[in-house]
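Supplementary Methods, section 5.1.

A reviewer requested that the exact input to the structure prediction be made available. We therefore reproduce it here, unchanged from the version used in the analyses.
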Amino acid sequence: MARADTDTGIADIKQGHYVKAIAELKPEAEAGDTRAQTNLASIYYYGLGISANFAKALQWYRAAALRGDPDGQMGMAILYAQGAGVPADLAIAHMWLTLALDGLPQGPDRERVRLDRDGIAERLSAAQLQESASLVRAWYKNHQAP
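The structure derived from this sequence is encoded token-by-token as follows.
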């Protein structure tokens, strides 16, 4: 059932029925469906049919990211890179992109994420790169994330 409601919510997004999509996606997101979580987060992030709400975008991207979802992890990276709903922190953005990269199959999406991550790396100091690497290790060792 969850998949059908999530698919319906995604179809609503594509048709521009954002408020209806929220109604379809929210229960599924609350139940742990990462597709629902990331799509709901996108509605809030971009302000689709509603006012943008970075706190709610953070809530849903983080929920998906903590379940290992690459889309959720990319969403977290964007929030940290832009300082949207969280203090800007490129080391944390780099960490989330590294995790997303690890979870993506070979292909154009993976290459785009790699380029984004490497672009952020160029802006980081050696200490910030070390911090990002420590955060990645903490994720894989204890499943901890900032």
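The CA atoms of residues 58 and 113 lie 19 Å apart. These observations are discussed further in the main text.
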